[in-house]
Amino acid sequence: MSGRAEVACPPEAAEFAHSLADRVRPIVRRYFRTRLDIHSKLDESPVTIADREAEGAMRDMIAATFPDHGIRGEEFGVHRADADWVWVLDPIDGTKSFVSGSLAFGTQIALVHKGRPVLGIIDQPITGERWCGRIGAPSLFNGQPTRTSAVGTLAEAVVYTSAVDHYALPERERYAALAAAARFSRSSHDCYAAGLLALGTVDLLLEGNLFDYDILPQIPIIEGAGGVVTDWQGEPLADVRRFDTVLMAANAELHAAALEVLRGN
Question: Are 118 and 243 in contact (CB under 8 A)?
Fold first, then answer.
């Protein structure tokens, strides 16, 4: 997502984003590791009362504080899609992990200005871990600067993906080739894996067939921690609602090495 001048995230909006994450934490904690009714959306992905209650609370806060801003949320769709400033919300990214009692999930929040994410938050409501990235500023983990790893070769790299079955067959084969060249790979964790990449404990994160609310909050965090975010051809991510492929790398050297495999070079 490049090609336009960067616009800084307003300080008041950054503070407000943290208040959104704070509001969601007790909602998610109340439902965590309880037996919930699970419903399927049109794409067959699961959703619970916790997802809907959490997003509803954030939407109410945004409408009261920034009535001119737009909202795109996973559970309740789009409001004011043509606004310059749009909040992108994923109340529980990793619902399958959440409903099975795993900690590999999080709340994701992005603020987008004319298609470019200028702020991103990943919050783990149970552990209290929070990542925040802002355009033009170092990314923070629980308020302290965080950096991606300096690993530059695939043989040393730890590779994560949310789910191999998200890929079409050709992409699945390309991912398998990359994973085979790595130190080791894991298929799990959803947005929590992006947090680990920003911490420097994961080196590559590959995704496919995901929506904007899955990816946009992660971009300022990874880039602000020193990482690189593109598609599997090395192109900047377009301003679209769905992404066929996403490659997040700890640094430019490792990004180039991953692209060689993904391109079949």
Answer: no
